[in-house]
UniProtKB/TrEMBL annotation:
Residues 147-247 form the Metalloprotease TldD/E central domain. It comes from Bradyrhizobium symbiodeficiens. SUPFAM superfamilies: Putative modulator of DNA gyrase, PmbA/TldD. Signal peptide: none annotated. Residues 255-471 form the Metalloprotease TldD/E C-terminal domain. Pfam families: PmbA_TldD_1st (PF01523), PmbA_TldD_2nd (PF19290), PmbA_TldD_3rd (PF19289). Gene3D superfamilies: PmbA/TldD superfamily. Residues 51-115 form the Metalloprotease TldD/E N-terminal domain. This is TldD/PmbA family protein. Residues 357-367 have a biased composition (Polar residues).
Length: 472
């Protein structure tokens, strides 16, 4: 049996004195682990050839403020379980949040009955035991200091006050602070037993400038598993206000073809398009424009895109995937070359490959591939050097809509930002579209040196050549 350390033991080692009994109970997943084990055993008794059970815990609290007053304060808490059973090459998934009485036995019997009438699928099945995780490094994902509601109120009010203090901000768009915890227990009939918990905390603020039809709005936020890693409320609020004021009195521009520079806040979307196109499910369905590009040079040789599930305190870190498979840091793009697809066990079997440990899953769904902590490695030029030779161009700070076709690679999105003239960022621009093709975008991508790890997908400032800017 492969077993990960329990979250409760992690908590007690870090916080034996400060954690209240209520907090320790919240972090203790032993009851969930026992429940998942009983579900798997019940499924086997009911006639399943194989089974796995997922138990998911979610706890969250949040406060929203506006104009110096609390508008909303809420807390939610719940545990859900899901059971996947296999009878031959047939599969069924059921879920519930009610496991009182003989509910475990009934749930297992219902799942097996559903599987027996399901269509055959030659690709379903549990992970090969040789691929299961055996090492569970401590990724420091759980903050034992759970902020009280009064602390969340303080953070939100401070962020809003900082935004309103920026000259040119006319009103608040609201501010919020949140804290939560989520985790999973996975038990399989092949003997795997793993669990993890991660905490999350966040602060956000929105500011408004101008009046009537001339109003502009922008925001900023910070999020991290540990409260100590958050930006201060003052920094978040001030940034939201400064971003908003900078957008005041935007101009229109003529349609043209120019270099486009993506601010780090939106540059990660380009990485997201790469990863969406190499998802094994899309490759198996042949619905990706990259379906024939494995092993080919798509970017310049200095481009590397990394997926790192083992990053300490990462927003999406974990030590095993939703099928119990060991995860590892991997370069999806290495020296500009596409090295792999993102695969779970089923898509890997369909493609004649081995899973890459990228299975994700909810309690009511079967596993499907997805990424962890993604980032585009930085280049050498500073952001200023990246735009220094641009006579006319566009600096994007916000993207609107989802006009990206993953089948063809066509790219078209609404955008706002700033005009670049003679190597300098000048006046704000709004109501434009940027369009091109992802192949050309990938080929011309130039990253700056200012990578920071703030989001689930991180990228430095990025320059793309020759996109069409649709204006007047």
């Amino acid at each position: 049996m492969n077993s990960s350390p329990s979250a409760s033991s992690t908590l007690s080692s870090k916080d034996s004195s400060k954690g209240s009994k209520a907090s320790r109970d919240l972090f203790d997943q032993s009851a969930l682990s026992d429940l998942a084990q009983r579900l798997v055993e019940a499924a086997k008794r009911a006639g399943a050839d194989a089974a796995d059970a997922v138990a998911v815990r979610g706890v969250s609290q949040g406060v929203e403020v506006r104009d110096g007053r609390v508008e909303e304060s809420e807390r939610s808490e719940g545990d859900d379980v899901g059971l996947r059973v296999l009878v031959g090459q047939r599969q069924a998934v059921v879920s519930t949040n009610d496991v009182s009485g003989d509910a475990v036995t009934k749930l297992a019997e219902r799942a097996v009955a559903m599987a027996r009438v399901a269509p055959d699928d030659k690709y379903v099945g549990l992970a090969d035991p040789s691929l299961l995780a055996r090492d569970f490094p401590d990724l420091d994902l759980l903050d034992p200091d759970v902020p009280a509601t009064s602390e969340l109120e303080r953070r939100a009010l401070e962020a809003e006050a900082a935004a309103l203090a920026v000259k040119g901000v006319t009103k608040s768009g609201g501010a919020s602070a949140s804290a939560g915890m989520g985790g999973m227990v996975l038990v399989t009939s092949t003997g795997f037993h793993g669990s993890y918990l991660r905490s999350s905390q966040g602060i956000s603020a929105t500011a408004i400038s101008g009046e009537g039809t001339g109003m502009e709005r922008d925001y900023d936020f910070t999020s991290a598993p540990h409260g100590a890693d958050l930006l201060s409320p003052d920094i978040v609020g001030r940034s939201a206000g400064e971003r908003t004021v900078a957008r005041s009195n935007p101009r229109k521009v003529e349609t043209c073809k120019v270099p486009v520079v993506f601010d780090p806040r939106v540059a990660g979307s380009l990485v997201g398009h790469v990863v969406g196109a190499i998802n094994g499910a899309s490759i198996a369905r042949k619905t990706s424009f990259l379906k024939d590009k494995l092993g080919q040079q798509l970017f310049a040789k200095n481009i590397r895109i990394i997926d790192d599930p083992l990053r300490k305190r990462g927003l999406r870190s974990q030590t095993f995937d939703a099928e119990g498979v060991a995860v590892k840091k991997i370069a999806l793009i290495d020296e500009g070359v596409l090295t792999t697809w993102l695969l779970d066990c089923a898509t890997a079997r369909e493609l004649g490959l081995t899973t890459t440990g990228h299975a994700h899953r909810g309690v009511s769904s079967s596993p499907s591939p997805g990424p962890y902590n993604l980032h585009l490695e930085p280049g050498t030029p500073t952001p200023a050097e990246l735009i220094a030779d641009i006579k006319q161009g566009f600096y994007v700070t916000d993207l609107i809509g989802s006009g990206v076709n993953g089948v063809t690679g066509d790219y078209s999105r609404g955008a706002s930002g700033f005009w670049i003239e003679n190597g300098e960022i000048t006046y704000p621009v709004s109501e434009v579209t940027i369009a091109g093709h992802l192949f050309e975008i990938f080929k011309s991508m130039q990253p700056a040196n200012n990578l920071e790890f703030r989001y689930g997908i991180n990228a430095p400032t990025v320059r793309i050549e020759g996109l069409t800017l649709g204006g007047r």
